Amino acid sequence: MGALHRPKFSEDPVDILLEAFDPQRTLEADLLAMWPVLRDGVAMDVREFWRPFAGHNTPYDLDHDAVEELIRRDISYTEMKFTGGLNGKLIAKMVRRGRASSKDRATEIAFTAGLLRSHHARHQRLSLALAADPSKLVRLTQSLYTLYALENSVLLNGAALERADQELANGAEQRSKLQAIDRSQCWLEMTTDGIIVDANNNFLVTMGYSLGEIAGRHHAIFCFEEDRVSPDYARFWESLRGGRFMQQEYRRRTREGADVHLQATYNPILDHDGKTVKIIKWATDVTAMRLAERNESDRAQRFRLEAETRRAAHQNTLAELADIVDNIGAVTRQTSMLALNASIEAARAGEQSNSFAVVANEVKALSARIKDATVQASTVLNLGQRSFGV
Predict the structure, then answer these.
(1) What is the CA radius of gyration of the chain?
(2) What dihedral do alpha carbons 62, 66, 68, 74 form, nearest 10°?
(3) Which CATH code is given to the segment(s) 298-387?
(4) In the chain, which segments carry CATH 1.10.490.10?
(5) Tens-digit pLDDT profile for residues 40-71
(6) pLDDT value at residue 310
(7) CA angle, 77 then 83 then 89, to 5°
(8) Which of 158, 191, 244, 366 could bridge to 195 as Cys pair (CB 3.0-4.6 Å)?
């Protein structure tokens, strides 16, 4: 975002001030003429000016060194006023003092009161020194208070300039913040009865309306029928009119009837008497997030169903294998019996039945191998069943 255009407030030019306060152009000569009389008391005047600002028990909390530095600079500034002429540098310094006084109203009063005390003390010294020359005293007194009027005017103007600049800066900052919010969020302005007054582009795009289509209509156009007629919706507006802040996620209806989820705050705007005069809604569209959550939930559900289906199929397979192992076990036992019977018959036949003995031994060996295979199959089957919690 580019820099905000900001009007420039500046002090009045020297020639304008002189035209207003010293049209005869005699002020500079009179100030120079009175300086020898006033010079010796300047340090006392300046110290008295800064006395209310010194110490940790004052609102300004200036320590000794800080006040002494201000006094030193102020003595030099006072000499400049009486001997240096009314030039741009002097006026600019007066303006800066005025800007410094704008910290708060108490500071501004302290500055103007201190300035008046200083000129009053100088007038007293001038009166004592020129008691024998009344005409000169009158002339120089007039010039002294002309300087006071000019300096006080510039001082107050400087304070006003500082406040104006600060207000501009604050206003620019507030506008910048509002623009940032306007770019990133939706907002809707309504009366206390829920009648729509204004909305930003984000809100209009989200809800699918133009401003002309919603201005003057009730907020209920964004609600589904079951929400519009519910007691909760009536209580919602009663709470807002009562000045209660409302915040949560709301389901709303677009122009096309689609769901939109808004994380929203409804803010009652109060007047100086605390009465609700309007409602401002700020909202963030969280529909995409809710849709993503729903899709993820559906995907997880599908995954669980698929896993359950695979688990059931595997359990069925294990059950079938268990039956097969049982059948093999039965065959093994029968084969063992045949091998035993064959061995007995071979023993009875003696040497005349060598071939029968060979067959008996082969059957016995086959029975042993089947038994080993059955044990191995049972082990694998048990491992499979335990892995599925069977």
Answers:
(1) 50
(2) -100
(3) 1.10.287.950
(4) 14-182
(5) 999 999 999 998 888 777 767 788 898 999 99
(6) 73
(7) 55
(8) 191
